[in-house]
Amino acid sequence: MGHTSLEKIIALQKKTPHIRNLCILAHVDHGKTTLADCLVASNGIISSRLAGKLRYLDSREDEQIRGITMKSSAISLHYTTGNEYLINLIDSPGHVDFSSEVSTAVRLCDGAIVVVDAVEGVCPQTQVVLRQAWLENIRPVLVINKIDRLIVELKLTSQEAYTHLQKILEQVNAVTGSLFTSKVLEERAEKDAEAQSSCTENGSGDQVYDWSAGLEETDDSDLYFSPDRGNVVFASAIDGWGFSIHQFAEMYSQKMGIRSSVLLKTLWGDFYLNAKAKKIMKGAQSKGKKPLFVQLVLDNIWSMYDAVVTRRDKEKVEKMVTSLGLKVMSRDLRHSDPKVLLSAICSQWLPVSQAVLSMVCEKLPSPAEISAERVEKLMSVGARRFDSLPEQTQELKKAFLDCSADETAPVIVFVSKMFAVDSKALPQNKQRPLTQEEIAQRREQARQRHAERQAANQSAETLKGTELNMLPTALSVKTAVEEDNKEHFVAFARVYSGVLRKGQKVFVLGPKYDPSLLPEGCSAADVLPSVPHMACCTVDSLYLLMGRELEELDEVPTGNVLGIGGMEEFILKSATISTSPSCPPFTPLNFEATPIVRVAVEPKHPSEMPKLVRGMRLLNQADPCAEVLIQETGEHVLVTAGEVHLQRCLDDLRERFAKIEISASKPIIPFRETVIRPPKVDMVNEDMGKQQKVAVIHQVKEEQTKYPEGVQVDSTGLVTLTTPNKMATVGVRAIPLPEEVTRLLEDNVELIRTMEQFSLFAWEDKTLDINQKILENIQEFKVKLESNLQGRKWRGAVERIWAFGPRRCGPNILLNSVEGYRRPSVWQCLEREKETEKAEIRDFDNSIASGFQLATLSGPMCEEPLMGVCFSVETWDMKLSAPLAQQDSIDEDSQTAEPNIDNQNESSDTHETNASSASSNRSRSGAEAAGSSVDCYGPFSGQLIAAMKEACRYAFQAKPQRLMAAMYTCEIMATAEVLGRVYAVLSKREGRVLQEEMKEGTDMFIIKAVLPVAESFGFADEIRKRTSGLASPQLVFSHWEVISSDPFWVPTTEEEYLHFGEKADSSNQALKYMNAVRRRKGLYVEEKIVEHAEKQRTLSKNK
């Protein structure tokens, strides 16, 4: 097919039923970009000889060097099969560090091509992309790629290859099946809950329990991949061939005189051809016959490879070419590389582009076929259910489903990411071919200039004068160059309804925008009062995305993928654009990777700081996953998803966004601090005997002297601390939380935030409406907490929770164990219906909570946040004179907000402001009542916050302290011969192997291990070097894990002295990490600078 003109594509954009938006998803190195090359070559954009070598959609230099895709890029293709189709193809990365780019691509599509390597089969990232496609409700089709490797590398027979391919299909279907089962079971659980509630309302009847899980009734046959259903293509993109069994069914139905519909059903499966009876029979496996698929399909391909690649049999090749009726150029027949001849034959016989594109057009939905379920999911942002949205908003569902391009239809566009484009690449700045008149005009100008120059040379003009004349032109050239190098941002978007036109006025709705706040009946043309998270702007320019190039458009109808220029001022990373202000913002994207790797960045020359700040801002906008923060220390920190991602971000900063030399620190590794229950055995696995106990008591007596005045620590770990003015005493105990509770708190951060917000509103005597679904989730969360906090010491603990921390929503708990003090519960939102007696809040209640927030934000070991610690306030005595109590209790709220404010993240900032404004109102009324002017920050409140913070820190130190390290799960595929080397690298880096299994039908092992983030830098490179590139790891952040060794451990028992020596100077991993963090933060580190100072160290004998 020749090159498609722009006019043709613009005409096709208007035919919504003939548009297909799809992305290519797969594990890294499974052949996505090569397949995309074959599809692009079918449109004549690149030469078919270069398909697979050029990697056209990898337009960045580092993508070409590393050989992996790092960003999703789109291209529009034209395909004809009876009807003409427009295919908007998005190629996405497979590397785990860039999985956020996959999320941005998946959101804009209606279908996906999932590519699986025929040798490696289903890999970790394949499962991730299938889950992403499932979560976005888009339909996948399957391409099993690299089948040539089964012939050339594994040297399988066609029969073995058939069994192998069946196994791969089973693996992919197993992943889909598990996703489907979990969905059905969730729905079933919801129905059960509803049925139960209705049962209880109707009174007690005979209860009949239905044991079926609901899986029997639901039809899931359309979810699975099977060649006879036409949603699987077998291909080798590098050799340019691919087929679905439809093609062979058509081919053989003419030859054998069997109906193609019969062949379709029997070509894949346990069928064989009975040559005598000329019938297709069942039971090939039991009778030891060749299955039809092997006999009619695979054998032909195997014999083609055998003749062309293995034996290079010229006569047989020529026979094959003539029997297939193909034309092969003589230079291909003479070529020294057999692969050239192979791809010349196969790309004509079974072109991969035709097989894939015809499958896409038949099996994937058009934008007009969007399901109502997907629309509701997109529109229900946050915890709001679709039916709780305002009425005008619900009416927009019809616009989505109609997908109409009428004048009256509201425009709805979703921008999934912003990407940076060089100004040279913009169509308006592109060099266009000159017309004959322009060429003649330029020739004339050149002649004139030449004549003037000669005249100038002849006149006696001094050199100095010439230099002066040259100066202004040099300056103007420089400014032009600077203008040229400016980065422009293009929004990567899709139109869901209406027609987006150049110069149109639209609303840009941020992710937190709420349509219910808006006055009725207003349009983008009106001058609106300022509404939070909404901006009004004019569409500057529209682009058709063509891989490395952009083409300018005037309008884009519904259902198309496009680029929008001039949006950098209004959109940070993603947004919803609409002409209707009642449009809700779309559900945020599901990012699989969490950014965990942090580095501090600074310019080489301090004077270039403003350029770095601007560059970081641009980088933050251009990368969907990178985060940019300025810490309290003033460092500029870049947070990325992994090593490769970090490298790409730093290169972008140097070369594109900041254009300055920068130096990056070593990665800042996050740790957490926690306490554990006292260990039962010592470091040499001996039971802790009396001898150890004596030693511990001896240690405690020594430590008692270290505590400052006013701090008492008893043997059970209860810390009692008095404020400097001796007016308040606080008793705090630290208790380790069970692991399940910590995990539960981490998973429910959003719920805890909602509860906190409700409490703040209640504090101001306001009410916050919470949707029923969230209340149910909070109730479930409470029940889970109660079930995990069992035992005598946790009795009633859930009801006594005072606060969560740090930042009011972290994985630590403050418990109220003060006798006789009943304060309002954090579960107030669940108790609205029940009229409970009003619990009184004691004076300075907030100061205690603030002290706890500060203590959990930076622990005593190395100022890292705490995790999994419960602080129980056991005593809290106040000795206050009446006027002082009244004065300070009025002010304590406004004081609370102050120390916290620096450390709050964005969402809790809003809470703080609410709290402080409320408290200032209260303080005003209180002051008037007292008839005196009050200092707005009571000194006593501050003392209590500090005392509470110190008490928490001492209570923490009174228990066995441990560091928690961030852990990656690491999946490595390796062959048997390099397995030993992989284990060596893992053990050297403190890794722990969880399981190792062999992949069926291959000699590959899959190793699952966990590895500390602190040890992961350079891990992938080292494994590749040690295994000569035969193994490559995939690292994904998984969880936090307690490091078992005690950073403050010293030998105390006899056995420990014998085993470790008196100095016990063998490396203590936890201490090493702790000191590294303290050194980075500029805290005191206890270490010997010089050991053996009397030894002379010379250069020649530097041992």
Task: Write a structural description.
The protein has 1103 residues and is α+β, with helices and mostly antiparallel strands. It is 40% helix and 19% strand. Strands 14-13-19-10-11-18-15-16 form an 8-stranded antiparallel β-sheet. Strand 6 and strand 7 (241-243) form a beta hairpin. Helix 8 (245-256) packs across helix 9 (260-266). The chain is globular. Mean pLDDT is 81; it is low at 460-484, 700-705 and 882-937.
**Strand arrangement, major sheet:** 14-13-19-10-11-18-15-16
**Proportion in β-strands:** 15-25%
- Structure classification: alpha+beta
**Counted beta strands:** 34
By DSSP (H or I, 4+ residues per run), the number of helices equals: 32
Main β-sheet, in a few words?
Answer: 8 strands, antiparallel
What value does the average pLDDT take? Answer: 81
State the shape: globular
- In angstroms, what is the radius of gyration? 35 Å
- The first-to-last residue Cα distance is 72 Å
**Residues in helices, as a percent range:** 25-40%
| Stretches with pLDDT under 50, minimum 5 residues | 460-484, 700-705, 882-937
Region (Disordered): 441-460, 885-928
InterPro entries: EFG_II, EFG_III/V, EFG_V-like, EFL1, EFTu-like_2, P-loop_NTPase, Ribosomal_Su5_D2-typ_SF, Ribsml_uS5_D2-typ_fold_subgr
Domain Tr-type G: 17-368
Biased composition (Low complexity): 914-928
